[in-house]
Structure formats: C-alpha cells, structure tokens
Amino acid sequence: MTTLVFGHKHPDTDSTGSPIAWVWYMNEVLGTEAKAVLLGEPNTEAAWMLERWGLEKPEIVLDVDDDQPCVIVDTNNPAELPANIGRADVRQIIDHHKLTGGIETVVPIDVTIRPLACTATVMADLMGGALSSAPEPIRGAMLTCILSDTLEFRSPTTTDHDRALAERLAGDLGIDIPEFAAEMFAAKSDVSAFSEVELLRMDSKEYETGGTKFRVSVLETTSPDAILSRKDALMAAMPEVAAEDNVHQVLLFVVDILREEATLLVPNEMTKKVAEASFGARVAGDQVVLPGVMSRKKQIIPALKT
Hints:
There is one protein chain. The chain is of the alpha/beta class. It is built from 11 helices and 11 strands. Strands 3-2-1-4-5-6 form a 6-stranded parallel beta sheet. Strands 7-8-9-10-11 form a 5-stranded mixed beta sheet, sandwiched between helices. Helix 1 runs parallel beside helix 3.
C-alpha cells in the first residue's frame, strides 16, 4: 500500500514542501512507494512555492483510513492531524517542534525531532549525500521552506545549520536569497482573498495553559497595515472561531517581518491580561506592539500565561 506523507492542518510552506521532498527521497532513494498529501489548502506563500518550482499541488485529504501507512512531518501533535490518525499505521515522524505526545502507533516507529528551525533541514540531514542528486524543484522547495520558517534568518529559531544549508542550496540553484525571499514574503503578505475566519485559521495552533484553551494564530507579513486595517472585522470573527474550535480565546499576532515585531490584537479583558502577564506589555487599546517577537514556537507559546 502507498505510504501517505503529510504535515499539519492549515499547511504552511514547510508542511507543503517537506512532504513533497520526503516523498522524492522515499520513492527514488529508499524505493518505497509514497505520495504527498495535504490536510487543507496551502497558504499563499506555499502556493507560490509550488508554482515557482513547477510542483504539482498534492491532493487534499480530510482523514486517513484504518491501517493506512503514513509518515508525519512538521508536527507530532494529534490536534493538528487527521481525526483517525490513531488507527492509521504511522511509520515515521520527522519534526522540529517540541514533543507533544498523544499519538499511539501500531508498531515501533522511527522518530526524528531536532532543535532546528525547519523540517526541511532535518530531512536534509537524513538524506545525506542523496540530497545532491535531488531534482532542482525538490532542492528549491527545501530552500523555500527554510527561508519561510526562519523568516530569511530573522527568526530566533534560526540555527547556523539552517543558514548554512539554505546558503548552500541557494548557491547550487543560483538563487539570490534577499531577492528570492522578498518574492516569497510578497506572496505571503497577499491575503486579500481570504475572509477573517480563514485568516484566523491560516497559520494557527491550539495551546492550553492554566486550564485555558487558545487558538494561537500568526500572520507573517511585510505589509502589516493591510491586515491591521481589518482589525475590527478580525476581532468580531474571533468568538465564532473560538466556539467552533472549542477554545476559550483566539490570539492573533501580526508579525511584521521587516520591523521584527508583532502586533497582538486585544479584543477583550482576557486577551489584555494575557498580553500583560505573558509579555510584560502595557495595553491601552485594542492592540499592542511586542518588539522583537517573531516566533510562535520560541517566543509566544512558551511565554503564554493567564
């Protein structure tokens, strides 16, 4: 049976490109029949990546069958995976996030979780010398994943290893990183076609602290005003999303890639208390700027307090 390879729901660039890269490695190097799939529509930057490198958009699946062989990449959190993941045959997990727990497997599996900025960097290590034989679109997708997850090396999650791999791939591909990243971020910043509800779920993760469940949403952009101009509508949509997703509150951080800061929308007293307790911020209105905050994984989630 064909092994399905997929990342998390609401796929970003890494959860779109890394399954494609790993499927190439499984099929062409390991000789294992595999297929990349997505757990939702890719975001605008991920869609740009597919077009830029001439890659076909993987099929979108809503769930997996019992005993379906699969490889999970860019997450190990059951909340971000198909509802039936516990009855599937999970063969491998490749990730760069903290260990969440909760996935039960049929047999012992291969798990690789490393403290790097991007799943594609972890995969490059696992591929070893085989990476040099990967087609240009595969290496290009991996480069795009690294630049996306590191925000062109601005994110505090960036390691020297991520940077060195990205620079090597860019050199091999004849890519000027600043110019290429500018195109990527322009695609990421164009969210005009999405509703407020879609924006709140576009790049989000569930997190619980002190008995309070949050949907922690991040929008990374070089044009924050385009998003913040929709502030009132975004805040009005938060209760609907919270109710549908069974969380107490949606937290939306608009990350300004160029200014290297985040703006947190503050629709109510709960969010105000979170901002003040978590970031030492003084909140005087319905938004607060958090200088230097760029990473949900390293700076937002670990800091959250109620």
